[in-house]
Amino acid sequence: MAKIRVVAIERQYCSGGSTTGKRAAELLGVPCYDREIVDMAAEKLGLTSEEILKHEEAVLGLLKTPLSLKMGHDRKLDISEKVFAAEAEIVTELAKKGPCVIVGRCAGYILKNVTRTLRVYIYADQESRAARAVNEHDIPYDEVDSRLKRYDKKRGDFFNTNTRMNWSSMLTYDVCFNSGVMGTEGCAKAICDIVNASK
Predict the structure, then answer these.
(1) CB neighbourhood size of 190 (10 A)
(2) Whole-model pTM?
């Protein structure tokens, strides 16, 4: 990777954002971090990965600068705040190690003053997402609509609370790709083209 050192991907549930991130990382020859960040935060805080995910949903937000919060400071943090603070520290450490792709965890916001980051949003039409939900996530067809809405709301609430920005607004990102039209491979290649053109 060149001037753009990190690709930070936010995505609608079942839009293929994780697949896109992994493929883009392969094409760029860099690591991709996704669920691994949850596992790292769990180890850091002495919790299980399931507990981390549970507390992500209840996060209250850290206002101003989450990166300034360190474990053990005088201010006593709510466990949900500690989870986000730990994830923010991990995201920053991973970005400082070298070029990478990070999926979720508000990485684009966290890294805005750390390193040059391409902020990407992956979305898709309802039909494409429903097909992926059934075929790749084994979600029963009659539960698809409610599951998509519920998980999008969780992701949106987590992002909006911690960043004070709008998760689903194109103004929050540098580029937005419709994987229903482009496919995950097309999205991954487009990301790589942008990164490589930044040389």
Answers:
(1) 16
(2) 0.86
Cα pseudo-dihedral 179, 180, 186, 187, rounded to 10: -10
Q: What angle do CA 62, 96, 9 make, to 5 degrees?
A: 65
Q: Domain 6-197 class?
A: alpha beta
The alpha carbon of residue 110 and the mean position of all alpha carbons in its chain are separated, in whole angstroms, by 11
**Which residue blocks in 35-143 are alpha helix, DSSP H?**
36-45, 49-57, 79-97, 107-110, 126-137
- Rounded distance between C-alpha atoms, residue 92 and residue 195, angstroms: 19
Closest CA to 175 of 123, 126, 119, 136: 119
Contact present, 31 and 100 (Cβ < 8 Å): yes
Average pLDDT of 59-82? 50
